[in-house]
């Protein structure tokens, strides 16, 4: 009975022993990196820059996409009425449109107001002065409600305006915003491709760094194999070294992205102020932060594991 209790106690202690052994290996690997600060710093800086490039570009695309969404919400529909429609008819049409649940406001641009604005921006005063009458139509400027400012709702509203007998042409001011958003989505795809390429490069960097460390400790590894050490036991310190490289590289990347955002916040605010607007930059969210740290750590682990597994095959006890 006493022997069974001892075996049960030892069985329950196995997780603690395993965790203690893992922690010892992790701290030993970190200490080994700190004993060679210059090579470690160079490798970590290289990893940090490689991780910061796609991470920073992704954050930039998020900010640009948020800006485009704000422009889309502020965009309006312009309904150019037929030449036969009078301003009184336009007033009655505007009153009907204001009753729609997806319309927030309807403004009327009269022919005279449109002519004044056209003269101010076109510079064709001589040509306009020679015309017998004002050729410009009455225009309705229609703003949608915030609950109906998405692309699908605006398209339905535009279709309803085009179906009106008084309407000659409907222009959606957010059309160019949709094209801009398509370019942003293309940029996000490019960032994904860049992240994949740089991720493969990180595997090579970590693998080459671990390979050099394996070569420096070749005799130690052979002795461990001679005394019966398993591949997992030999691999463990090198894998933890790769994990530390990836984690520290991810931290450096986060610092670089945050520093970059802080450096451009003031110029962005000045540009937004010129348009009587505010645009606070979107920083590193928790998912992006986790992706950069976790991605760096995972790549460090994979690079070191592959490098050790490859080189252990070439190191055999004599």
UniProtKB/TrEMBL annotation:
The keyword Iron does not apply. GO terms for cellular component: cell division site; plasma membrane. Its main location: membrane. The chain crosses the membrane at residues 41-64, 190-210, 243-264, 284-308. InterPro entries: ABC3_permease_C (IPR003838), FtsX (IPR004513), FtsX_ECD (IPR040690), FtsX_proteobact-type (IPR047590). It is a multi-pass membrane protein. GO terms for biological process: cell division. It is found in: Cell inner membrane. Pfam families: FtsX, FtsX_ECD. Residues 194-309 form the ABC3 transporter permease C-terminal domain. It comes from the Bacteria. Keywords: Cell cycle, Cell division, Cell inner membrane, Cell membrane, Membrane, Transmembrane, Transmembrane helix. Residues 77-169 form the FtsX extracellular domain. The keyword Ligase does not apply. Belongs to the ABC-4 integral membrane protein family. FtsX subfamily. Forms a membrane-associated complex with FtsE. Part of the ABC transporter FtsEX involved in cellular division. NCBIfam families: FtsX_Gneg. PANTHER family: CELL DIVISION PROTEIN FTSX (PTHR47755). This is Cell division protein FtsX. It comes from Thioflavicoccus mobilis 8321.
């Amino acid at each position: 009975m006493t022997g069974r209790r001892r075996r049960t106690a030892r069985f329950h202690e196995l997780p603690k022993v395993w965790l203690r052994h893992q922690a010892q290996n992790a701290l030993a690997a970190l200490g080994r990196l700190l004993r060679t600060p210059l090579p470690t710093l160079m490798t970590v800086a290289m990893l940090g820059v490689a991780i910061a490039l796609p991470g920073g570009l992704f954050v930039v695309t998020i900010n640009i996409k948020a800006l485009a969404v704000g422009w889309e919400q502020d965009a309006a529909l312009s309904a150019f009425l037929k030449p036969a429609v009078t301003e009184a008819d336009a007033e009655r049409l505007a009153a009907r449109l204001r009753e729609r649940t997806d319309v927030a406001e309807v403004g009327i641009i009269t022919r005279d107001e449109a002519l004044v604005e056209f003269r101010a921006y076109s510079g064709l005063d001589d040509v306009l002065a020679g015309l017998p009458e004002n050729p410009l139509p009455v225009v309705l400027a229609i703003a949608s409600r915030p609950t109906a400012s998405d692309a699908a709702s605006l398209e339905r509203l535009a279709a309803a305006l085009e179906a009106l007998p008084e309407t000659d042409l409907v222009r959606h001011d957010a059309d160019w915003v949709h094209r801009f958003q398509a370019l942003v989505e293309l940029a996000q795809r490019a960032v994904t491709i860049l992240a994949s390429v740089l991720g493969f490069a990180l595997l090579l960097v970590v693998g080459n760094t671990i390979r050099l460390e394996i070569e420096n400790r070749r005799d130690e590894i052979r002795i461990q194999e001679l005394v019966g050490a398993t591949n997992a036991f030999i691999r463990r310190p090198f894998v933890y070294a790769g994990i530390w490289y990836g984690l520290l590289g991810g931290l450096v990347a986060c610092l670089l992205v945050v520093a970059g955002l802080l450096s451009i916040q003031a110029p962005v605010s000045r540009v937004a102020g010129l348009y009587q607007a505010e645009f606070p930059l979107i920083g590193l969210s928790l998912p992006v932060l986790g992706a950069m740290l976790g991605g760096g750590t995972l790549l460090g682990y994979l690079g070191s594991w592959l490098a050790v597994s490859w080189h252990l095959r070439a190191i055999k006890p004599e």
